[in-house]
């Protein structure tokens, strides 16, 4: 087991310095070489520095090696650091009761919802399960921590009228129109729009290559409306980020800036419910299924790893019946 730990620690140290292909080569080489050696860790006594968490560094290094996005790694790092600081014990000594106490405190101080609290529980579970499976801890404290029950929020896709209100609210602002239509036409995640490059757009074919979760590339398509606003917005630009700031040096907009654009458009449109980029993605998927798009096709367009993930949009509820009424029965 010390051989495994040695490799884990080396990969954790290198994960911030090297790209994934280089890490894969090193990982394979270490596995081959270490099979021929017996490695023993030199014991120097327990560290009294509670802010040093080598097991967390190893876990995060493994996440980077497995191509988790930087935002996901940062999210895990923030909560797990908070957890370890709050408990104030070595990972070997942490119990399920410690984790529950931390989650309760986190809920009280941060005023988080029960769904967010359960998400934090799952982050802790992935961390301690990793440590247990790799032999860093003898017992998994999460074995005694039950899932937190909550009522899942039902996201209602934008209605055709709400979409039209948002389009009207954009007015003559070409960038606002381009941003809104990009989300509605492609169903992209906000991170994918952030990373979208002009050089990856094929205006003639009406599509663009995006980089999704797990660094997986896929092609998404533009509607005629989105294509028209994109052409106007891009002008003679041939490279760089698609959506850029209106002020010099005109850098690519980040996640928060795109979210704020969508919120502002919705507020101007007078839409009462909360509107955010993922709701536009939800709207894209719901409308596509309502119009009869096969699940496997939608799964590919949205960059889902499994059709089961896409299936959540296929519920035949009131929204779909209203949509079909508008299509077939409304005058």
TrEMBL record:
- Domain named Core-binding (CB) is located at 50-132
Q: Is DNA-binding among the key words of this record?
A: yes
Domain of life of the organism in this record? Bacteria
- Is 4Fe-4S a UniProt keyword of this protein? no
Transmembrane region(s): none
Key words, A-Z = Cell cycle, Cell division, Chromosome partition, Cytoplasm, DNA integration, DNA recombination, DNA-binding
| Similarity-based family | Belongs to the 'phage' integrase family.
Name-wise, this protein is: Integrase/recombinase XerD
Q: Which organism is it from?
A: Enterocloster lavalensis
Q: What is the lineage of its organism?
A: Bacteria, Bacillati, Bacillota, Clostridia, Lachnospirales
